[in-house]
Design brief:
heterodimer; A: 286 residues; alpha/beta; Rossmann fold; eight-stranded mixed β-sheet; two-stranded antiparallel ribbon; 11 helices; 38% helix; 17% strand; B: 73 residues; alpha+beta; Alpha-Beta Plaits; 4 strands; globular
């Protein structure tokens, strides 16, 4: 794939892809969801997707408001069931490109089971999972991804549960494309989302997104500049992480604690549900 | 020279553009926009190199960078 990205102006994105009457967005100040939308539009433009042949699916939550802003067909499904609806669309009409916006609470908490089985089936879907460590829309309850010791409205003395690593889960289940990026760095997510759309099979892009209102406020990261800087300081590139684990000093290894790996974790090929279904139909003359 | 256009109906005044502007050409304005927030303004246009990072990082698609009289045509 090309290494350079073509520069796209906000004016161009606004006229080509957005439903202008829906703006301004409902997202809070300092929320990264608008950036996720921006990067997704860049990626769509990069791939050259036809919006008339693309469906955006989402569940419930802040992140699930995103399809409403894009001038394409969308489906705002029930809580956690975005992937189930998306699988249905792909099974019924494999000519459509399906992109799912979901959150950590929606996709990994309430819809965790659907995530497992959609990856297992390897439906050709691109999932942009926005992880903000909390259930932001309902008032900041703890999510499966809330970090160890993180404060939320349901864990006022700190979270005692081990957080779920969604990318490791997807990797273990054999998803063909798994990546995680924070929204604070724009170019990598744009490229990853574009690769995910091009990839035949399930592509999961986890976006680490600041939530100053519901999560940051309770964890001493209320200011926008501060919480955005936190994401920069607490993420380590996969290559660097592995290097430190292998050759780093004990202090360097200790510094990795509480930080998150970012990068492309898996990029392989795997037979998709659509391929196998087409083969079955041909074989059994259905 | 570059200029920036702010859609004041869409800007929420989060100031991410000001925080991340590499040559520090932007500043939060003292005035209020019609939405009641402080929009960014280009106070040092001679510093702006047209990298468009503000445009890419704006969560609300509110900034457009325009270029006037390009030197390297």
């Amino acid at each position: 794939m090309a290494t350079g990205l073509r520069i796209k102006t906000a004016a161009e994105l606004r006229t080509n892809y957005l439903r202008r009457e829906m703006f301004p967005t409902i997202f809070c100040d300092g929320c990264g969801l608008g950036n996720v939308l921006n990067y997704t539009l860049w990626a769509i433009d990069e791939v050259g997707l036809d919006l008339d042949r693309t469906v955006f699916v989402s569940g419930i939550g802040c992140s699930s408001r995103l399809p409403g802003y894009i001038n394409a067909d969308g489906l705002h499904a029930t809580h956690g069931r975005a992937l189930a609806f998306a699988s249905g669309i792909r099974a019924a009409n494999p000519d459509l490109t399906v992109i799912v916006f979901t959150g950590d609470g929606d996709g990994a908490g309430i819809g965790g089971n659907h995530l497992l089985h959609t990856i297992r089936r390897n439906m050709d879907i691109t999932v942009i999972l926005v992880n903000n460590f909390t259930y932001g829309m309902t008032g900041g309850q703890s999510a499966p991804t809330t970090p160890d010791g993180g404060f939320s409205s349901t864990t006022p003395y700190g979270n005692i549960e081990h957080p779920l690593d969604i990318c490791e889960l997807a990797k273990a289940l054999g998803a063909p494309y798994v990546a995680r990026w924070p929204v604070v760095s724009p170019a990598q997510p744009v490229k990853s989302i574009a690769e995910g759309i091009r990839k035949r099979g399930f592509a999961l892009i986890e976006m680490l997104t600041p939530c100053p209102t519901a999560y940051g406020r309770r964890n001493g990261l209320k200011e926008i500049e501060q919480i955005w800087r936190w994401y920069r300081e607490h993420t380590v590139l996969l290559d660097e992480w592995e290097w430190v684990e292998q050759f780093g000093s004990p202090e360097e290894r200790e510094a990795l604690r509480g930080k998150m790996k970012i990068g492309v974790f898996q990029d392989t090929e795997r037979e998709t549900f659509e391929d196998r279904w087409a083969a079955l139909v041909a074989r059994e003359k259905l | 020279m570059h200029t920036i256009q702010i859609d004041e109906g869409w800007c929420k005044g989060c100031a991410l553009c000001v925080i991340y502007c590499p040559p520090r050409a932007l500043q939060v304005a003292a005035r209020f926009s019609p939405r009641g927030v402080h929009p960014p303004e280009l106070v040092r246009p001679e510093r702006c190199n047209g990298c468009r990072l503000c445009e890419l990082l704006c969560p609300d698609f509110a900034i457009t960078v325009t270029e006037e009289g390009r030197v390297h045509a």
